[in-house]
Amino acid sequence: MKRILLIFILLFIACNDNQTQIKKDTYSLISIESKKITFNKREEVLSTNYNKPYLLVFLSTWCDYCLGQAQHIANINEEFGDKVNIYGIFIDKDEELTKLKDFIEKSNTKFEWYYKGDIAKLVDSYKITTFPFMLLYDKFGNLVMSYDGLTPEEMISFDIKKVI
């Protein structure tokens, strides 16, 4: 009887640790319009992705190259329309909302921008050290390509065409 009780306790603890691990791999992001999405690193899926390929774009307002990259991503967004989801993520945790909105206006981007939530944890998780930085996923949430630094628009478009 003691063995059965011990096995049951160990099984319960092991299952409980699994739940903790899943929770650690979940990141919430909040957009400038106060929309919330959840990014689950274990499954690599965004809660609002709607079964499409998606591009995560990590940028900063203080990075000169980021503005140029954002303008290229705006062109990509126009080219592919609703065939791919693009999520802009500001890494500036304490940046004023007016500066973020100015950046969005200057870059002429029409996709969602996220600036609050677990962004620092997400950046640490991917060990992102240079900006701009982008991650392209297929519709199943599999990482297809990462782009480190300023990347030509044509290269990103070519990769997106492969996963549509």
Walk me through this protein's architecture.
- The structure is a single chain.
- The chain has 164 residues and is α+β, with helices and mostly antiparallel strands.
- The chain has helices at residues 2-24, 64-80, 97-107, 119-125, 153-163, and strands at 26-31, 36-40, 45-46, 54-59, 85-90, 112-117, 133-137, 143-148.
- Strands 3-2-1-6-5-4-7-8 form an eight-stranded mixed β-sheet.
- The radius of gyration is 19 Å and the shape is globular.
| Count of individual helical segments | 5
Number of strands: 8
Strand count, sense and barrel status of the largest sheet are: 8 strands, mixed
What is the first-to-last residue Cα distance? Answer: 57 Å
Task: For this entry, give a set of tags.
5 helices; alpha+beta; single chain; 8-stranded mixed sheet; 164 residues
What is the fold's blueprint, element by element?
Elements: H1 2-24, E1 26-31, E2 36-40, E3 45-46, E4 54-59, H2 64-80, E5 85-90, H3 97-107, E6 112-117, H4 119-125, E7 133-137, E8 143-148, H5 153-163
Parallel strand pairs: 4-5, 5-6
Antiparallel strand pairs: 1-2, 1-6, 2-3, 4-7, 7-8
Helix pairs in contact: 2-3
